[in-house]
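Friendly challenge for the regulars: who can give me the C-alpha cells for this chain first? No prize, just bragging rights.
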Amino acid sequence: MINNLEEKEFLNKQIMHLENALADLKDKLLPHNPEMFEIMSSSYIEKIKEFRSEIDEFIGFQVIEKIDRSDIVIRLQGPEIGFGNAPISVVSSILEEVRKGFQNLYSFKQGYRNLTKIPNYISKACDMSLTNVREGSLQIALQRPTEQLSLLDEKTDFERTAELYLTAASWAASHGSVDAIKKEIPDIELREMALKSVLRLIPNSSKKINRVHLYGSLIKKDIFLTKITRDYIIENLSKEIEEEVIYTFEGRVREVDLDKGSFRLRELKGEENINEIIGHISDSLLDDLKENLDDVVVIRGILKNETVNSKTIQIRFIEKA
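First reply, four minutes later:
Bragging rights claimed.
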C-alpha cells in the first residue's frame, strides 16, 4: 500500500522496468513462439497490474470510477458547498427528499393513494445505497437496492419509477412544452406526482445550493436543476390551461378540515385589504397540506369567489414558505 508520493514514484519506476523487460521479451519470442511468450510474460503482466492498482487507489482513481458507474449521482453546487465544506443538514435533507420522491412515485404506481404510512416492501424497494461521496462540488453516488437488480432484460419496478422521475426532471430542466410532458406522462395524476417529486429535490433558496446536477448509468443525458427550473415546475403545476390567471399568497395555515379538503390562510403577507384566504384542495394535495399544518406557506391557485375581506381559492400548489 502506498503512503506517500515517494513510494508512488518508486512504483512508477518499477512499472517502467517491468514494461521494458516485457517489451524485450516480446521482441525475442514474437511472432515465432507465442505460447512461450504467454507463459513467460504472465508474471510481468500480473505485477504491472498490481502496481498500477496500488497507484490508482493512492490517487483516488478507483473512487472516481466507482462514482461514475453509480446508478444516480447527485452533484450539489452552491455557496455553502465546497471542498471540505458540506453541512450534514443539507446532505441529509437532499437524500431524504430523493427517497421520499421515489417512494411517493413507487407507491402511486402500485395503486396506493394518500398513504399515512408507506408499506414496508415499498420502503425497501426505494432504499438506495449511498456508495460514495466526493468532495469539491459535493457528489453523492447512489445505487439501486440489491433486491431491484434484474438478471433479465425486463425493467424492474424501481427502474420504471426512476425512469418516470428522471423523465420529469429532464423535461423541467429543458423547459419542455406542456404537450411534450403530457405525451411522456399521459396520466395527469401521475404527471403531477412526478413533477412534485422532482420539485422536492430543488431547494427553494439559492443561499446554500444553487444547482443540482444529476448523472449516472440510469440517466441518458445530464440533468441540471436550478431555481429557474423550480419556478417552471411550479408554474406548470399551477396551470391546467394556458389562459388561467394564477393567484399567489403567503400566510399561515389555520382551521384545517381534511375531510372537506379546506383550510384558512391567515396572517397574510403584503395583503392589507384581505383578512383571510379560504383554500380548497383536491385529494392529491392532502399530503402537502398535512406536512404544513400551522406553518407559513405559499399557495398558488385560481380564484373561485371573493368578498370584501376574503378570497376563495382553488389550490393548485402549496409549499412551506
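The chain has three domains: 5-59, 68-238, 247-320. DSSP finds ten helices and ten strands in the chain. Your move, everyone else.
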